[in-house]
Amino acid sequence: MSTYVDILDLARTNRRNLFNEKRLNKAIADARLDAVVAVSKVNITYTGGSVSQGGNLLAFVVTTAGGKQGLIINEADAYYYGEYSWITTIRSYRYLSNGYSMNQNSIRLLTEMLKEFGLANARIGIEIGQIPTSHFADIKASLPGVTWEEGGPVFEYARLVKTPGEIELFRLAARSSDKAIQAAWSTARPGISEKLVAARMQSFALQMGADTLGHCHMQSGLHSTVAHSWPMEKPLLPGEVVHVDFGAGFGGYYTDFSRNAIVGKATQKQDRIYRHMWEIEQLLIEDLRPGAIAGDLWDRTEKAFAKAGLVYPWGTIGHSTGLDVHEGFEISKGSETLFEAGMIINIEPSHIEQGDARYHLEDSYLITEKGCELLTDVMDTRGLFPIG
User: Fold this and answer.
1) CATH code 3.90.230.10 region(s) in the chain
2) Exposure of 195 by Cβ count < 10 A (0-12 exposed, 13-18 middle, 19+ buried)?
3) Contacting residues for 357 by C-beta, under 8 A, at least 6 apart
4) What is the DSSP letter of 338?
5) Assessment of whether the complete model's pTM goes beyond 0.90
6) Which CATH architecture has domain 21-158?
7) Which of 56, 177, 277, 338 is close enough to 255 for a disulfide, judged by CB 3.0 to 4.6 Å?
8) Residue extent(s) of CATH 3.40.350.10 domains in the chain
9) 77: exposed, middle or buried (C-beta count within 10 Å: 0-12, 13-18, 19+)?
10) Are 322 and 173 a contacting pair, CB within 8 Å?
C-alpha cells in the first residue's frame, strides 16, 4: 500500500495515474475533433503531466485524436515539465520585457506545432474562454485552415470521472484537510481570535501535506452570517456558533468542505438547527449513486428545508470537485447531469439564522458502483464541535 508521502510525491513527479486518457480520447472522438488544446491552468495540469504554476503567460498542451501530445510553455516552467512530464515534445519561449511579446511567441510556437502535427486544416477544440480576444484573433489568423471549436466541455467530461490514482490522492487530501480543522479547533479557547484559529488551521494543512492554501472562511457568531468574509481579530465568545468553509491544494487537487463548532454550550435552538443540517445531508446522499439525476437532489433539498422550517440561501446544493473546487457542474434546479461511479461530489446544506450564525455542513463524497463513500470522514459531524 502506498504511504502518505508516496502518494503526494508521486502527484508532484509522475501524474500518469491521475490522467484519464481513455475518457479524454472518447470525448475527442464524440466531439468529432482532430485535436484539443488545453489553455487553463487546470487542464494544462491534467493533460500536461505536471502541476501548472499558472500566471498570465499563455501556455498550451496539444492532444491529438491519435494520442500525440505537445507542450508550449515559458522557459522557466519548461524545466519542471521537462523533468517530470511524460510529454517529450516541449517548446519553450524566453522571458522578455513584457507579457504581450511572450504571448505572441507562445502563439507562434503553437502555430508551428499544429502544422508539424498535420493539423493546419483540422477541426480543433481549444479553451476559447481562457484566451484574451485579441490573442485568439491572432491564433485564428495564423491558422486560417483550422476550424476552431470550444474545447472546454471535452476536458470537463474527461475530468468528471476520476482515476483510481486521483481517488487515492483526493481521499488523502480530504482527510488531511479535515484533520487540520479538527486540530485548529481542538487548540482554540474562548477569547482567541478568528484570525489566529484560521492561521493555525492553514498551518496544520501545510504540515499535513498541502502544497498550497485555498480558501479559509472562518467566522464566529453574527460575523459568520456574512458569507465569504475574511477572518478578523474578533474573539470567539461563549455561546457563539463558529463556521468554517475551508480548502487546501494537494498535488493540484483542491479540497472544499464546511464545519460548525460551538464555543461553550449550545442552546436547544442551535442544536436543533444544526441537527437539521446533518439530517438533510443524510437524506440527500441517498441519491448519490450511478444513474441518479443531479436536479432531483435540488427538488429534495427544497422539500427538506421547507419541512424543517429553514431557508436554503443559494441556488446550488452542491457540486462536483477535483482540480477545480467547482468542477464540471452544479447540483441545481433542472440539472440533467447523471451521476457516474468515480465522480467526487460535494453536498452542502446551509442556513443563515439572522441574529445568530451561519449553519453549514459540507462534505465530499465519492460515487461508487453501490452508492457513495464519505471522504471527509475524520470529524464526527452529528453535533456541533465543542470549543472551550
Assistant:
1) 161-387
2) middle
3) 220, 221, 222, 224, 225, 240, 241, 242, 243, 260, 270
4) B
5) yes
6) 3-Layer(aba) Sandwich (3.40)
7) 177
8) 21-158
9) buried
10) no
